[in-house]
Structures are given as C-alpha cells and as structure tokens.
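Sanity check. The docking grid for fe (ii) ion depends on where the pocket ends up, so I'm generating a full predicted complex first rather than guessing from homology. Inputs follow.
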Amino acid sequence: MAVTIINMPTRIYNGTGALEVLAEEGRRLGKKALIVTTGKDMENFGLLRKVTNRLEGTGVSASVFSAVTPNPKTSEIEAGVRAFLDEKCDFLVSLGGGSSIDAAKNISMCAANGASIHDFLPQGDKVGLEKRRAVPHIAIPTTAGTGSEATKTAVVSNERNRQKYGVRHDCIYPMVSIVDPELMLTVPKSVTVDTGIDVFFHAMEGYLSNKATRFSDMVALESMRLVREHLPRVYEDGSDLDSRATMAWASTLGGIALDNAICVGIHGLGQPAGGYVDAVHGKSLCAVYYSYMKYTWQSDIPRYAEVARILGGNDGAEREAELAAASADRLRAFIRPLGLEIRLRDLGIEESMIPAIAESVLNTTRRTLECCKMEIGYDDIVAIYKEAL
Ligand SMILES: [Fe+2]
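Predicted complex below; grid placement will be based on this.
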C-alpha cells in the first residue's frame, strides 16, 4: 500500500469551552499579543472582551488590529505587520472568520521575514522557500467555515491586479487553534450558511482530488455527512449548541481534508471569480459548483456517486453512473432551502469579465486544477463560467 502523508502540525482544541485554554497557551508564547480581527462585530458580540480577559488574566497584554475586511487585502496585511512591529508584540491571536485567520497567517510570515506580502505573491520577489518562518499564532475561529485553523493556506486579495491568491507554506500553520462553538452562537443566519457550505466544499473537493489519501478520505467523508445533517439545523436554529459544535468539528475536518488533499475546480474557479468582484467566499463557490460538477462528473464516477449517496435524494438514480450524474442536482436540492442558489451574475459578474477571470485562475489557482481528475484548461474554464452566468 502506498505511503500516506498526514499533515496536522497545529495543536487544535475543538469543543464547547475550549476557549479556556487560551490563557495557558498565550502565556507560553510571550508577554504581548496582537489580536487580528474584523471591524466592530467582535466587540459588539463581546467576543473580543472574552479573549482579552483571558490573556490579561495571566499577565499577557493585548493590542487590537481590527482593520481586516472580507477577502483581506494586501494593504491590510502591510498595516498589520506595522502594528505588530510597532507594538513590539511577541505573538498573534486571530479572532473571527477565515479573513482574520488568513490575515494573521500572512502577517505572521511577513513580520518574521521582514518582508512585504507582495514578496510572496506570484509576481513578487519571493522569499526563499527554505528560509521562510513565521511568528507564533493562535487562531480562534468564530465561524464554522474555512477550516483555516488547520491549514497552511492563507488567501489574500492583491489590490494591484484584483487577483485573490492563496499563499501556502508550512510555516504559516497556526501554532495553536481554539475552536469553541460557544463563540459561534451569535453568527447571523446568512454568515452561518455562507461559511457552512464552504465546509462541505472543502470536504467534497478534497474527496474528489487526485491528491486524496486514505486519511483525507476518512475526514472528508465524515465532514460531508455531518454538514449534510447539521447545516440545515443551525440554519433553522442558530442557538442549537449541539449542531453548532458538530459544524465546528466538521469545519476542522474539512480544513484537514483541504490541507492534505487540496481542492479541485470549485475553489479553483469560485475563488478567483469572487476575488474579482470582492464577493463572499461561500457565495462564489455556490455560483460555480453546479456547472463544474456537470462538466466533470464523468471523470470519477465512483466518487461523484458517493457524494450523491451522502446527499441523498429521490431522483430515481440507482446505478453508479446515474448517481454520479445526479450529484450536482442533489447538491442543488440541498443548497436551495438554505437560500444559496446563486449565479455569477448575482455576484456582479458579466460575460465580458470572463476572459480576465479565467486568466486569473491560471495565475492563482492553477494548483487546484492540477488536482482534478480531468485536464482543465483555459477553454474549459471559460465554458464552465459561461454555464454559471
Ligand atoms: Fe473555502
């Protein structure tokens, strides 16, 4: 049997009450933390206070950098690095969704290397891969979504060319991640589904990837099953702590699947499209998955059929090929009641933009296309986007 690689270098605490470990974990990393977060929501919901109280309780002081926005921008990373250095911080704590965590990952690498984020982008000068390092980072997700707490990927939107790029390096794994579903109880319904469906895509794409392993399959299949059952529940009742906790667990599993098997073309095409018009990540994926799956299901009938089985449904499909062909429709039937039936036009994308976005795919997410079971080139990308308009 082939050798299986398991990437899981982050110490992850996942479960109700996990935030209690922050004091001890923070104290080990130094005297001063920079908390990286987004705007006022964290303050309004009292989450920032919960974090600072636990740090200050053990003598760790904290500064707050709250200028991160969805699809974090290169200028925000630069400002975060300045804040970290000016405040003479020892480590980072990210609090929020994937935007906060990814921003902190990029800040951690730029601050440690004395480099600009532009150095790490495709057109940048590059800092030698072997020399890269990062300052310690504790990630505290407040959504069940990106799984960023378990990955070495950090997306950033380059304001110079409107391209959204995923920086990947071993040094940007968070040192510690604390995933506490109690912090997710106040997440609004729209954010709950936008991020919750991202979990499903991480797991499904990891499962469909040609980099999938017996380990990533195990976590991807479990994550898909849990989202299938529990995302509708948290959509109906955001105060359902058991289902919030299960979604938090599924999110971490999805992140592990993504980190070990990478993604395929739903992220490969959805992320650049969303980056081009600054759209919400989950919605960008929902705009392209259907045409992508319809285009590719024949490339791996057993796995698309398994996805269809997990999603369930009564469309008369029984044979393997019928199930695989029905997988996109079954996912659409799952997504529709969650209010996530979206087309590219709903995100503000016009047909005239497709060539530029397709080019952006080749520049930023080509790696995901290399994980697809079929070859996907420029013409295929354009065809899938046109179908998704
Ligand atoms: Fe994602």
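Relevant for the grid: Residues 11-184 form a domain with the Rossmann fold fold (CATH 3.40.50.1970).
Also worth noting: The beta strands are 11-14, 32-37, 61-65, 91-96, 137-141, 153-158, 163-168, 176-179.
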